[in-house]
Design a protein that fits this description.
By secondary structure, the protein is of the alpha/beta class. It has a single domain (11-276), classed as 3-Layer(aba) Sandwich (Rossmann fold), CATH 3.40.50.970. It is 40% helix and 10% strand. It contains nine helices and five strands. It has a five-stranded parallel sheet with strand order 1-2-3-5-4, with helices on both faces. The longest helix is centred in the N-terminal third of the chain and has 22 residues, at 11-32. The chain is globular, with a radius of gyration of 18 Å. Bound molecules: thiamine diphosphate and magnesium ion. Residues 153-155, 184, 186-187 line the site of magnesium ion.
């Protein structure tokens, strides 16, 4: 295995990695006293698959020109992203304890100038997909073989900049671009459907010229199959991942309050017990 090869070869290994990412993000948020645990846990399985099984990147050379690009457009889920990067070897796991602290390389939202492995700054929603379309366009123009992957939140995709980017990606036939929508059906304080309804989201994206599928965003086998499925030549790929905000912790799941609520020490122990199946 070269350093650029993703470390997981089986769905079971990716599931183990997902557990480590959830536990790491939980501790990271509890230590910092801030974060977005709900959206961290809805996107965790996607991150585990990408960093565990898909992305060809080199932690020793984060700027390796042939690397696959990953853009976490919903940058508020930084704790899970940083944990995934640390576990892939971009920086020591111990550095997670500095999250959002003074002088930390791990800001509250991702910054490409500070954190190894971050491709573009995110946090202000609505920009990651347009940037990813630019990356994929660059690769297409250069005839480069690397792939671009991007995750957007479902609340985020209400922003118009995404629909311009969707339209342009199809226009250019960016088959080197894969979009995941973290379809947890919640945004900051309410449901997406009661705020600015998206359904049927996959059909809308398909109408813009993309190839689409809808999968259980916590089912590693299904996610992996969706990425590996043979795709029509010349179309970008969108995977609408049905997810649960706060996935894995019963008292967090599907509750808008856990968008950015910070668990108490007692709640951290309860969450850890549920995630690991080991009683506190
Ligand atoms: C342009 C912009 N407007 C508002 C916010 C504040 N904000 C942070 S997260 C969030 C909700 C995002 O919801 P969603 O995209 O569904 O993310 P998830 O449910 O995965 O946490 C909002 C409104 C922001 N970061 N950027
Ligand atoms: Mg959401």
């Amino acid at each position: 295995m070269t350093v650029t090869t993703p470390p997981c070869t089986t769905p079971g290994e990716v599931r183990d990695l997902a557990l480590r990412i959830r536990l790491g993000a939980l501790d990271t948020i509890a230590t910092a006293g801030l974060g977005h645990v709900g959206g961290d846990f809805s996107v965790t399985d996607i991150l585990a698959l990408l960093y565990g099984g898909v992305l060809r990147v080199d932690p020793a050379d984060p700027s390796w020109p042939q690397r696959d690009r990953f853009v976490m457009s919903k940058g508020h889920a930084a704790a899970s992203l940083y944990t995934a990067l640390a576990l892939r070897g971009f920086f020591p796991e111990s550095e997670l304890a500095t999250f959002a602290g003074p002088d930390s390389r791990l800001g509250g939202h991702p910054n490409r100038r500070k954190t190894p492995g971050i491709e573009t700054n995110t946090g202000p929603l609505g920009h990651g997909l347009p940037v990813a379309v630019g990356m994929a366009t660059g690769a297409q123009l250069a005839g480069a073989g690397w792939q671009t992957y991007v995750v957007v939140g479902d609340g985020e995709i209400q922003e118009g900049s995404n629909w311009e980017a969707l339209m342009y990606a199809a226009h250019r036939g960016l088959s080197n671009l894969t979009l995941f929508v973290d379809r947890n059906r919640l945004q900051q304080g309410a449901g997406t459907e009661e705020t600015n309804a998206l359904d049927p989201l996959d059909e809308k994206i398909r109408a813009f010229g993309w190839e689409t599928s809808v999968v259980d965003g916590h089912d590693i086998d299904a996610l992996w199959a969706a990425i590996r499925a043979p795709h029509d030549h010349g179309r970008p790929v969108a995977i609408v991942a049905d997810t649960i905000k706060g996935k894995g912790v019963s008292f967090m799941e599907n509750l808008a309050a856990w968008h950015h609520k910070v668990p108490s020490a007692e709640q951290v122990e309860l969450a850890r017990a549920e995630l690991t199946g080991v009683q506190a």
